[in-house]
Design a protein that fits this description.
The complex is a heterodimer of chains A (317) and B (566). Chain A is α/β, with parallel strands linked by helices and 317 residues long. Chain A has helices at residues 2-12, 35-48, 84-94, 106-112, 114-123, 168-174, 189-201, 219-227, 245-248, 262-270, 290-293, 301-313, and strands at 56-60, 75-78, 99-105, 128-133, 136-137, 143-144, 180-185, 206-211, 232-236, 254-256, 275-282. The N and C termini of chain B lie far apart (83 Å). Classes of the chains: A alpha/beta (317), B alpha/beta (566).
Amino acid sequence: MVEELKEWEIEAEPQVCTLQDYQGAQARWCPGCGDHSVLNSVQRLARDKQLPPEKTMIVSGIGCSSRFPHYMATYGFHGLHGRAFPVACGIRSRRPDLHMFVVTGDGDCCAIGAGHWIHAIRYNMDLTVLLLDNNIYGLTKKQTSPTSRIAERSNTHPHGSPLPPLSPLTVTLGIANASFVAQTVDWNPPHLYSTIRAAFEHKGTSFVRVLQRCPHFTSHVFAPLKDDFGQMLLLTHEAGIQLEPSVAKLFPNFAEHDPSHLEEAQALARREDVYPIGLFYRDEHAARYDHITQHSMGMSQAGKLQAVQQAIERFAV
Amino acid sequence: MKPATNAQIRTFHLTGLGLDHLAANLPLAPMPESPSLRELFAKALHDQRGQARERFFANVRYCRDRMRELLSLDDQRDPEVSASPSAIKASMGAASSFFDSGSLAVALRTALSPVSRMNPARRRRCEATLETLSNAVDEAEKQPEYWEFPAADAGAIAFCERQLDQHVEILRAVRVARLEMQSAYDESIHDDLLARFGWESADREELAAMPAVLVMDSAENFADKSLTTFARLLRSGLPMQILLTCAPFYTGDLGFLAVSHREAFVLQSSTACPEHLSAGLLDMTHTLRPAVAVVSTGDTALFHQSRTFPMYVYNPEAGEGWIDRFDLYREPLPRTEVTAVHVAAAYPDWQRHFRVLPTDCWSEEQMELSAYLAQYRTAPPLAVPFVSLLDHEGREQRAVITRELVQIARDRQRAWKLLSELAEAGKPAPPLIDTGKIRQEGEKEAFLRVVSMLTGGGVPAPTPAAVVSSAAPAETNASTVEIAADPYVDSSLCTSCNDCTKINSRMFQYNADKQAYIADANAGTFAELVKAAEGCPARCIHPGIPRPDDRTATPQWLGRAAKFNA
C-alpha cells in the first residue's frame, strides 16, 4: 500500500531526471556532425544540474544548429532567421525562473542577426549562448558565411571567398558590457562540457563559440585541428575552464591567461597562428538589463492600474 | 547547592569510603534555577519539529492558494460570472469609467463558450479540498505545540487517534491538491488509493508537523494504575510521547519494562544530569514511535552515581541490533561501594531504616554492607550488615540497616549488573596487536643494518624489501610500451556522433552519458573496429589486437589499425 502510493506520487512529480528525460526527437544532423557532441553535452549538463525540463528553454534561429530545440525534451522556440536573441531577451525579461540557452550559428548570429547579437551582449541578460560555428551555411547547402575563411570556395563564391572572415570573438570582446566569452571545440567533449558548464554557471550573457565540424561541406577546415592538437592553444587559469589532467595533457600548447584581463583577451582573440581554446574573459560585475526589466514582477492587476493612475494624476491640472 | 544542615542529616555522615565529596551534595532539594522538565521537553520538541511544522504549513498554504486560483479560473470560464457587468467593472479597475460594462457583458457572453469548464465531480473535489486546507491553516494558528494529556489511560490513545485522523484529512487534501494542480488526478486510480491512505503511509516530516500528544504522569501513579494500558500504548505504534516523573529514591523498573516492548523509544534519565536528559529528550522528540521517558526529578547526581537509578537510552531507530539501540550512561561514576543504602541515608523518609550501634555492641557477626552483598549469592550470609558513618565528633560509627533496605540495595546492584552486561553484549573485542610479528621484523631490520655497517655498505638500507629490489629498474625502462590487447573506447572523448554505432550497433553502444563504449567486442570483426576507429572524429577508438579466430585480421587491416593503437 505504502509503496503503491509512493509510486504514483513519483509519477506525478519526477524526482530525478536521467539523460533520456532531456532527449527529444531523433537528431537529424549528418553522422559525424559536431552538433551531436554539443547536444549531448547540453543534455548531460541538464541532467547533472537536474534542470526541470519544464523550466528549461532553448531558443534558436534558423540553420543546422538551430534545429537544436527539437532534439531537447524541454521547452523550445525555433524562431526566425537571426532572431534568436530578441526572442530570448524577451522571454528572459519576464521569466527569471527559467534556465535559458540560446543556440545559434555563424549565419544566424553573425550575418542576419548581427544587430541583435551586439545588443544582446550589451544587455547581459542571464543567457547561455552557444554559437555553433562551422564556417558555412550547411542547411541551405554550402554558401559563404561571415566566418568562412578567405579563398573558401562555396556556391555563392565559386572562386573563393574574397573577404577576410569575421571573428565572433573579437567582435564580442569589443562590445561594451560583455561578461563571459569563451571558445571551445566539439571534438573534445570534456573541454566542451566544462566550458558549457562554466557558461551556464555564469550569471549574465555567456557567449561560447564552439568550433564545429561540418563533415559534409567544411570537413577540411577543422580536420587538421582534430588530428593535430598542436594547432590549438589551451588557455589555463585557476579562474578559467578546469580540465582533468588526463585530458589537458592532450594539448601540447598551453598558456596561462587570467580571464579578468580584457586587453589580453582581445589580443588572444586576434591571434591567427593558433586557435586559443578556453575562457577569454569573464566579468561577474557587469550590469544586467534583466534586473531592470523584471523590476515590477509580481505586481497585481489592480496594483498596475493604480500605478498608471498615479502617474496620470501627476499631470492633472 | 545549599550546604547540609545538621537537622537533616542527623547523626549521619557518609564517609570512610572516600565519599566526602558526595556529602557536599546533600540535601537533595530540586535545583531552583534549572528549567523544569516540561520546559526542557517543550524546547526539545520545538527544536526537532518546529521547522518541519513551518515547512508543512507553508506547503498547505501554497496548496490552498493554488486551489483557490484553480477555482477562480474555473469561475472566470462561466460567462454568467465572468461576463457579468459587475465582474467586468471590477477587472477594469480605475479604467472602468471609460467603458460601458453592460454592453461589453452582452458582447462577451456570446464570445465565451462554457465548454472548457471543470466537470462537476472535479469541481466538488476541488471545493472540498480547498475547504479542508483553509480550515487546516486556520486551525494551525490556534493549535498548541503539544497537547498535554494528564493521565495515561485509554482516553489518551483515543485522543491521539482522533488527532491523527484529522491530520490525515489534511494530508489527503494536500495530495489531491498536488494532483489537481497538474491535472493528474485520475479517479479510477486515486479515489481508491486515497480512501486507503492512512497515517502509516505519511512521510515522517508530515507526521512531525502534527502537534505532539504528550502524556505526563508520575511513574508510581502510572505503574499502580494500569500496566495493561501502558503495554497497549507502547505496542500501538502511535506517535505519542509519555513523560513519567519519579519521586526521589524511585526503585522501580518501568523503563526496562518499556524496553522489553522492543519498538518503543525509552529514555531513563535525571534532571540532575541535564546533558544526558536534554540529549535524550532531543532523540525522544525526534522519533515518531511511542516514546517513554522516565525522569527522576529533584535528586542529586548521587542517585544515578550510586547506580540505584541507571540512566540509559533505548532508541529503536539507531539500528537493528541491541548494540546500536541501547546506550547505558556510565560516566562519571564513582567507586562501586556506594550503594542505594548510602542514597537512602540522605532521605529523611528512609532514616528509620538505620540504627546506630553503640560501640560496645560491635562484634564479629557484623559485616560491612559491600562485603555482605558480595557474599550474598543465593542465601544471605550469616551476619548483620552495617554501613560505616562518622558522627559529629568525627568518630566512626556503625549503623545497622533493615532487611528491606538491604534487599533494595541488592536488587539495585543486580539490576545494574544485568544492564551493564547487556550494554556490553555484542560489542567487538579490542583489536589484538601481533607483537610477535613486529618484534620479528624489527630484529630482521636491525640485523641487516649491522651486516651493512660491518661490510662497509655505506648508508644502511631502511627496509629489507628495498635491498632486494634495488637492481630491477634498468630492465623495465628498456622494455617497449605495451599495446592494450583488448579493443577499447576512450569514452570521455566520444562526441556521440553515431558513426561507430552505425557501423555495428551491437559492438558499440552508448553509456549513461551517451558516450560510446565497447559493449561486446565479440559482436563484430576486427575490420569493423578499424573502420570505426578511422571514422571516429574524436579518435577515441582503439582496435587492440585481433582475436586469433578473426578472419579479417589480415596484414592490411593490422597495418591500418597500427596508428590507432599507438
